[in-house]
Amino acid sequence: MKLSLGNLLFFWPQQQVHDFYDHAKTSIADTLYLGESVCSKRRELKLNDWLELGKDISQQGKQVVLSSLALLEAKSELAVLKKVCDNGEFLVEANDFAAVHLLSSQHIPFVAGASLNVYNQHDLQYLYKKGMQRWVMPVELSKDWLSDMIEGCKELGIHKKFEIEVYGFGHLPLAYGARCFTARSENRPKDDCNLCCINYPQGRHIDSQEGEELFLMNGIQTLSGKAQNLINDLPHMQGLVDMVRINPHSLESLTWLTLFKQNMQGKAPVSTKDYCNGYWHKIPGMSLVG
What we know:
Blueprint: E1 2-5, H1 14-24, E2 31-34, H2 47-58, E3 63-67, H3 75-85, E4 91-94, H4 97-105, E5 110-112, H5 121-130, E6 132-136, H6 143-156, E7 163-176, H7 181-185, E8 204-207, E9 213-218, E10 221-229, E11 243-246, H8 252-262
Parallel strand pairs: 1-2, 1-11, 2-3, 3-4, 4-5, 5-6, 6-7, 7-11
Antiparallel strand pairs: 7-10, 8-9, 9-10
Helix pairs in contact: 3-4, 5-6
């Protein structure tokens, strides 16, 4: 199995982004996802900046993929999406079906992101015919669900025609909404948010009345409060999964790339007591199977 480093979901200052990728480009990740997938107002790095960064990273022998927005709400966002799809150099992760349409109409191959919400083999067959090269499994699906879908793909004759990627580490993107939750938490309207999410480089915590961490607010995105960690489930992915994604939230995330690589065969397990892996085991997502 290969390892990928997901795009930055949180809003960081430009210099922090560059410092992160100075380390990431020499990491053991096979694929790096770049770009903004949460909010179009986050312009510390513009598209040309991401493209230049991608060129620098690709010179290290790594595959670069540009991630598109998961929720489009304005013509200006659609215009930027068209530029992403027409970049002419890097594969695109389509996180919205508008991106699928733009890419497939030009016969450009793409990665089908988890936010497309694909739950059966017939959807995969449709996307494969449109040009899908890799499918990122929705975060709430289990190993058993994946196994059933693979069996369905075999019946349809599309098994092994595309790669399968799973979120292996990091806070899980659960939902997107038209309102900005971070701005609302500071009593700001979305149109005058003052880009306040830059003040929360790892999201803003939402706890239950019992003090249990439930969610992270990240602009219009809701993330899981606990980070998922499937490092000890890697042996069970053999034959099912082609790529495992590490979702970065700090420089520490790069260390997990090495730990995942060391435990591919289950010979270097790691304590995951502060994490969760419930969805993979077909139980509540916040749970942890040791």
